[in-house]
Amino acid sequence: CLTEYLNYLTTIKNRSQLTALNYYTDLRMFMRFLKVKNKLVDANEDFSEIKILRP
Question: What is the 3-state secondary structure (H, E, C) of 8-29?
Answer without folding.
Answer: HHHHCCCCCHHHHHHHHHHHHH
